[in-house]
């Protein structure tokens, strides 16, 4: 099982470097514009009032936090960070169990003296380790970007930590949902299409919810469960919504285990 883990994790090395580099670049570039925004907070807030409230809510700018504050501005760019992490996690989820069938290497893997449960644990562990590294660098990039460009303005660091603590559950949501969908389908030919569909599909659900109001659509979207504008405004997470994400993660893991151990894996 250890060899499977090492091999799988090695396969993620290039991917980790690419995602981490892009995330750090995104955070630094977006926060670099903050000093300009914060110079005239009154003018900025007046400008935003001219836009429809529904449009502002769709982009996470309709809350109680002003875009001229450090955390208000960071809440806006954090959504883009979430999208990056969602695509990465979903991509890993859709690929880790379907790659053998897609590349016709299932015979070789199944010939090894390891059970399917051990294979699943090793693959999941490798993917989770890769996501944890990206998570840690997202923490580093967030604090670094804020400290570099906060323009002397103060912010509640405990609120920021609370928000960053949600990242691991956010990543696990897309990883596990991607895994269970992959074992439910006969074969996944384009992992990227599925991962983009899951990430942007759930994001659009939350956007529609913000426009039309209500919570029904939000129950299906982790972007609503871990809404950065709400968390940074209140300094706490929405326990009922987070519980929904946690329940989906657990159910997805159990379903993946059951389906994968019974799956008729196609090969050459």
Structural class: mainly alpha
Domain unit count: 1
Main beta sheet, described?
none
**N-to-C CA distance:** 24 Å
Flag low-confidence runs: none
Q: Your description of this structure?
A:
- The chain is mostly helical and 268 residues long.
- It has one domain.
- The protein contains 15 helices and no strands.
Quick overview:
This protein has one domain (2-262). The chain is 76% helix and 0% strand. It has helices at 2-11, 13-32, 34-38, 41-49, 53-58, 70-96, 99-103, 106-110, 116-149, 157-165, 167-184, 191-212, 222-225, 228-234, 239-262.
Q: Could you name the key traits of this structure?
A:
single chain; mainly alpha; 76% helix
Write the layout of secondary structure elements.
Blueprint: H1 2-11, H2 13-32, H3 34-38, H4 41-49, H5 53-58, H6 70-96, H7 99-103, H8 106-110, H9 116-149, H10 157-165, H11 167-184, H12 191-212, H13 222-225, H14 228-234, H15 239-262
């Amino acid at each position: 099982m250890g060899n499977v883990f090492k091999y799988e994790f090695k396969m993620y090395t290039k991917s980790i470097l690419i995602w981490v580099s892009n995330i750090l670049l995104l955070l630094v570039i977006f926060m670099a514009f903050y000093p300009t925004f914060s110079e005239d907070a009154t003018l900025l807030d007046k400008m935003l009032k001219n836009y429809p409230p529904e449009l502002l809510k769709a982009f996470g700018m309709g809350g109680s936090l002003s875009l001229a504050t450090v955390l208000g501005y960071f809440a806006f760019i954090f959504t883009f960070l979430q999208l990056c992490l969602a695509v990465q996690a979903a991509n890993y989820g859709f690929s880790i169990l379907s790659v053998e069938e897609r590349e016709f290497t299932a015979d070789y893997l199944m010939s090894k003296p390891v059970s399917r449960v051990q294979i699943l644990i090793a693959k999941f562990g490798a993917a989770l380790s890769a996501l944890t590294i990206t998570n840690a660098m997202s923490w580093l990039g967030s604090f670094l970007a804020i400290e570099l460009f906060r323009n002397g303005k103060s912010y509640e660091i405990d609120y920021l930590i609370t928000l960053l603590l949600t990242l691991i559950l956010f990543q696990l949501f897309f990883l596990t949902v991607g895994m269970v969908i992959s074992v439910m389908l006969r074969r996944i030919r384009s992992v990227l299409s599925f991962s983009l569909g899951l990430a942007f599909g759930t994001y659009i659900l939350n956007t529609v919810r913000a426009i039309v109001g209500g919570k029904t659509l939000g129950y299906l979207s982790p972007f609503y469960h871990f809404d950065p504008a709400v968390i940074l405004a209140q300094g706490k997470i929405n326990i009922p919504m987070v519980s929904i994400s946690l329940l989906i993660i657990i159910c997805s893991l159990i379903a993946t285990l059951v389906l994968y151990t019974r799956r008729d894996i196609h090969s050459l």
